[in-house]
Amino acid sequence: MPIQWRKQMSVGNLIIDLDHRYLLSLINQVEYALRHPDEFDNLKMALEQLAEYAREHFAREEQLQLRIQHRAYMKHKMAHQSLLDRLDEISAEILSSEDPEALKARREEIVPLLRDWLLDHVLKEDMKMKPDLEQLPPNAIG
Fold this sequence. Notes:
The protein is mainly alpha-helical. It has one domain (13-133): Hemerythrin-like (Four Helix Bundle (Hemerythrin (Met), subunit A)). It has 5 helices and no strands. It has helices at residues 14-35, 40-68, 73-96, 100-125, 130-133. α1 (14-35) packs antiparallel against α4 (100-125), α2 (40-68) runs antiparallel to α3 and α3 runs antiparallel to α4. The longest helix has 29 residues, at 40-68. 22% of the residues are buried.
């Protein structure tokens, strides 16, 4: 079942919220592709897009954190790197599998990891920026 954006996920910045929405969409695409492992090219493309956009988003978010002088900037930056490392590990595991049936079996493990990867970060870590972000125009960037 696809992840749906909810108003409670908003951090109060339109750019970051749009990024988060798009990342949710990309995770939904990966989930869909995992359900259809016979279309391996779609899975590979979805994972590559997710990794590329996550890197872009994290860079944008970190610039914004510098602008607001976010107290936990370095901790947040390290969390981003950890998330990217984990995404790279997940992608490598998936892309190294040659057996479509094995991918279907692993889907039950991988999809929750990807969902947690983003949702936990947004709902726990990014929300800590919300009070500072609300002091800026809603479309502020770094």
